[in-house]
Amino acid sequence: MKHPERYRDQKVVVLGLAKSGVQVAKVLHQAGAVVIVNDRKERDQCPEASELEALGISVVCGGHPDDLIDAQVALVVKNPGIPYSVPPVQRAIGLQIPVVTEVEVAYHLCRAPIIGITGSNGKTTTTTWVGQILQAAGMSPIIAGNIGIPLTEASQEATEEQWMVAELSSFQLKGTEDFRPRIACLTNVTETHLDYHGGMDDYVASKARLFRNQTAEDTAVLNWDDPVCRGLVPYIKARVLPFSMNETLREGVYVSPPYIPGTEDQLERTIVYTDDKGFTHEIIRVENIGIPGRFNVENALAASCIAIAAGAQPSQLEGPLSSFRGVEHRLEYVRETDGIVYYNNSKATNAKATSMALSSFTQPIVLIAGGLDRGTDYDELVPFLQGKVKAAVLLGQTKDKLADAAQKAGINTVVLVDNGEDAAHTLTLAVQKASGLAEAGDIVLLSPACASWDMFPSYEVRGRIFKEAVHNL
């Protein structure tokens, strides 16, 4: 550990008994803090409580007591998903007690330099890809954060010779103060999680905290094609290393020749890197990248940029870029049967992600979509539905909104699946209907454009039920 002494004898309240909360409570206790863990769930719904109490950690379940936060509390560590409006967080803010997420604690304990990766879309694929590239280059990376193991757990064993590669959400980054990654990457920014952040300003500001404490010794990797990313440049003190699909960069990683309207599928393209001395290095032909989709070319650019900033040689990138087969629930190939190919893209929890998935295929698509209604319309999907989607099977709270977008796109076959009490049965029925509408040569694509929480506890559960239904056809 790097600075465990900063927590010794400090009174710390941990809000939330999820995986990261349990781990950060253990780590803080080990560092000598006086830890109290609080969860609003009843005790019989908190199986982790007994384990923590056996270590001497106080656990309070069944609500948030009025006296939980007092002037003696030095720090509140909250689960990223807990809103800032809950009473204990508001009381801590009123008492000027720092409220952070486990990312902040992990930063102070981790000996390894940190690569922080965030973005509205692509961060999991990029994080996983970076890990594979660095592993192939002999750098022994650790993958953690919003993917895999909690950052505090990974930080305990990390050494100065390794890289900590961390996927970070806006929820996690909003709760940071001193956090300073050696390499920070923002893949893109689009409207999402606005119910949590209250608007785009807070969402963008939370993402931008990734760069806030960086210095000229650090590297900021930015999507040069994204106006929000590019707009952050004047506020970043680190060396900026951009990547682009659409521009030839003086320094950075880009596609050559660039993508220009009307030439998307007409030219052979290569990912190249131009270094700070002006020398250009070919990395890989775009057609040889291991996973389909133009947005995965963008993820490959981001991963290449990060790996080069971490010390990998451009010549070391081609192998892992070509052998990578993607991440579960992210345009994941499921099976082919009767000439119909099924893809699981359950991680597409916003319209932008679904648009990107639709753009990945030239075959006719039967789209399964719908989920939690966050109060937005889906008009931005219309140009991506047109000429791509032959039929749509819609479910969840947003099925009527998506049906309206499908009608605007001129899709003649739209099937609405009523939400029954059994969500798994509802999705299975949607798969069966989609299969009946598809023909040999078609794609059946689950790409919901919505979060899963109206029907499923997570997008992972949704995706696995979809895959099970496909295999049972």
UniProtKB/TrEMBL annotation:
Signal peptide: none annotated. Cell wall formation. Catalyzes the addition of glutamate to the nucleotide precursor UDP-N-acetylmuramoyl-L-alanine (UMA). Residues 117-306 form the Mur ligase central domain. Residues 329-450 form the Mur ligase C-terminal domain. SUPFAM superfamilies: MurCD N-terminal domain, MurD-like peptide ligases, catalytic domain, MurD-like peptide ligases, peptide-binding domain. It comes from the Bacteria. It is found in: Cytoplasm. Belongs to the MurCDEF family. Its EC number is 6.3.2.9. This is UDP-N-acetylmuramoylalanine--D-glutamate ligase. It catalyses: UDP-N-acetyl-alpha-D-muramoyl-L-alanine + D-glutamate + ATP = UDP-N-acetyl-alpha-D-muramoyl-L-alanyl-D-glutamate + ADP + phosphate + H(+). The keyword Cell cycle applies. Transmembrane segments: none annotated. Pathway: Cell wall biogenesis; peptidoglycan biosynthesis. It is an enzyme of class 6 (ligase). InterPro entries: Mur-like_cat_sf, Mur_ligase_C, Mur_ligase_C_dom_sf, Mur_ligase_cen, MurD. GO terms for molecular function: UDP-N-acetylmuramoylalanine-D-glutamate ligase activity.
